[in-house]
Design a protein that fits this description.
203 residues; alpha+beta; 2 domains; 4 strands; binds protoporphyrin IX containing FE
């Protein structure tokens, strides 16, 4: 046993050129450095009881986050409105959080609730909510006078701009109805595409 110990010490000295004491000191220091560096990258395992607490509190936290998230992003269910006058559409401008946010282009009404950040109160395009914004969109105008579905007198290129907006809306939002004129309660001349499958009572 003593012979083996002496042989190991001799080998260390022969191969490293260090005394056994120096060799083991350096080895111990290397272990400490290794452990320290590793602990910088790996989370230490918490004790069992703390671990359980952490699991339950993180579940509560993520449920709270999810609830918060769904509260913040709660979007009223899309409801088909059918025929609505321009005046009635105004009620859907986002001032009542229980109502969907609606906006019309060329007489067709879209549910834009999912883009509350654009059209909701305080949003950059809040002025379009509850309106047929055809003229404003065609002219790329924020002038309140252009907040109308009246597209008379627009040039071909302006109508083309409006068409692009309509395609964008058709692709992105659900159509929920169409604007009808107050007197006749018939689709307006701007409402050129009245879908047959919608609640259209012809009143
Ligand atoms: C300085 C000029 C403008 C800038 C920098 C700008 C910028 C933007 C940006 C970054 C978006 C978000 C696009 C997306 O994420 O889908 C957006 C959306 C929109 N912009 Fe503008 N905009 C400008 C002018 C206008 C004007 C003049 C109008 C119309 C009068 C307009 C109408 C809209 C509408 C309606 C949306 C929302 C579209 C949707 O519902 O997805 N913008 N704009």
């Amino acid at each position: 046993m003593v012979a083996l110990y002496a042989a190991v010490m001799d080998t260390i000295t022969t191969y490293t050129g260090l005394s056994p004491a120096a060799f083991f000191t350096i080895l111990a220091l290397m272990c400490v450095v290794y452990k320290t560096v590793c602990s910088m990258f790996v989370d230490p395992e918490p004790p069992e009881d703390l671990k359980n607490k952490l699991i339950s509190s993180s579940a509560a936290a993520s449920a709270a986050t999810a609830a918060n998230f769904s509260n913040q992003t709660m979007i009223p269910e899309t409801v088909q409105l059918g025929d609505v006058t321009e005046h009635e559409l105004r009620a859907y401008d986002g001032s009542d959080p229980n109502k969907p946010l609606l906006m019309a282009i060329k007489g067709q009404i879209y549910d834009v609730s999912r883009s509350r950040m654009f059209y909701g109160p305080g949003g950059p395009y809040a002025m379009f909510a509850g309106r047929d914004a055809s003229r404003a969109l065609a002219l790329m105008s924020f002038d309140p006078q252009d907040l109308t579905g009246n597209i008379e007198g627009l040039s071909d290129s302006e109508l083309e701009v409006l068409q692009d907006w309509e395609y964008k809306f058709m692709e992105k939002y659900v159509k929920v109805g169409q604007i009808v004129s107050e007197q006749t309660s018939k689709p307006t001349k701007n409402g050129d595409k009245v879908p047959e499958n919608q609640n259209h009572d012809g009143a």
